[in-house]
Design goal:
There is one protein chain. The chain is mainly α. The protein is built from 11 helices and 3 strands. The protein has a 3-stranded mixed beta sheet with strand order 2-1-3. α1 runs parallel beside α10.
């Protein structure tokens, strides 16, 4: 139920649920956005499931680089599934109500999976660094055991470090209103409704971004600077081109991911008159990469592309 601040008695009132209002400023026709969002979601699920199936079926893809791609596919599906069904329910059935525990759980999953995606990009950058800069050591360093340990480490790192985000948000006192001008439980959108000081929330958010995403991006940049230096030392232009071609798809995904993260971070400091842009970017950040990541890899990676053709051809023959 919506709580009007005029009828609340200050700190004695605590809201029991939130209302996700959808896209601010376009409530009257926002339902038209449901079709492209639904198509993007279905595309994300289908493309990532196909990539996982292909990696499992094709022995040629049983390599660390593709194992990390498989982990990325699982993370992408989780990220998209965490928000899209609820957004579609808002747009199709006007199901705006979300309980506080559900909202904080969604907030946690968003942060955890976004940081996990960043962590997997680091693992993939290390894989390419060793493959190009230290090729003789690659078979002994980047093993299946390394993939498992790196994935478990990233999972533990992200599940533990993102716990304070919803915990701190849940400790705020929501006493004035419960309408969130958003499609999902964004930390800034939710905590802006609190009646008490939220400095600690903002501080931890900054620390999280700089320590996790910042260090991840720094590690990726260092890896690719080393890769570029090694490639420039190669005498053969063909060898240099071949080495860089294995990194192209990875670089495209990294640029897409971090560009959106940076733009969204900047939009939090702009006037509320462009709130719609912030909300749209927040939503697309959770849906566009999961839909595009497998397609970028399929288009730019010859080995994966050939395996996908083989699997699809076999399935069509089987039918």
């Amino acid at each position: 139920m919506f709580h009007d601040p005029r009828h609340s008695n200050g700190s004695n009132v605590q809201v029991s649920e939130f209302l996700l209002m959808g896209f601010p400023g376009i409530h009257e026709w926002q339902h038209w956005l449901s079709l492209p969002l639904a198509l993007l979601y279905l595309l994300a699920l289908a493309a990532n499931i196909l990539v996982l199936h292909t990696i499992k079926q094709e022995a040629a893809l049983h390599q660390p680089m593709y194992y990390f791609l498989g982990v990325l596919a699982v993370v992408d599906m989780g990220l998209a599934t965490n928000i899209t069904p609820k957004i579609l329910a808002i747009l199709w059935f006007n199901a705006k109500v979300i309980s506080l525990p559900e909202c904080f759980a969604q907030m946690y999953v968003i942060h955890c999976f976004m940081c996990m995606e960043s962590g997997i990009f680091v693992c993939m950058a290390i894989d390419r660094y060793v493959a190009i800069c230290q090729p003789l050591r690659y078979p002994s360093v980047i093993t299946e055991s390394f993939v498992v340990k790196a994935t478990v480490f990233m999972a533990l790192r992200n599940t533990l470090t993102t716990i304070p985000v919803p915990v701190l948000a849940a400790q705020r006192h929501y006493c004035s209103q419960n309408q969130i001008e958003h499609c999902l439980c964004s930390t800034f959108a939710v905590t802006s409704l609190s009646c008490d000081d939220r400095t600690i929330n903002k501080l931890y958010q900054v620390i999280l971004v700089w320590t996790l995403l910042g260090s991840d991006l720094g590690g990726i940049i260092l890896s690719y600077v080393s890769i570029l230096q090694s490639v420039l030392k190669l005498n053969s232009a063909e060898a240099a081109s071949k080495a860089l071609s294995t990194c192209t798809s990875h670089l495209i995904l990294i640029l897409l991911f971090y560009t959106v993260v940076v733009v969204i971070s900047i939009t939090h400091f702009v006037p509320k008159t462009v709130l719609l842009i912030t909300v749209l970017l927040n939503v697309l950040e959770n849906i566009i990469p999961p839909a595009l990541n497998p397609m970028v890899y399929a288009l730019k990676n010859k080995e994966l592309r050939q395996s996908l053709h083989k699997v699809l051809k076999l399935n069509s023959k089987g039918n």
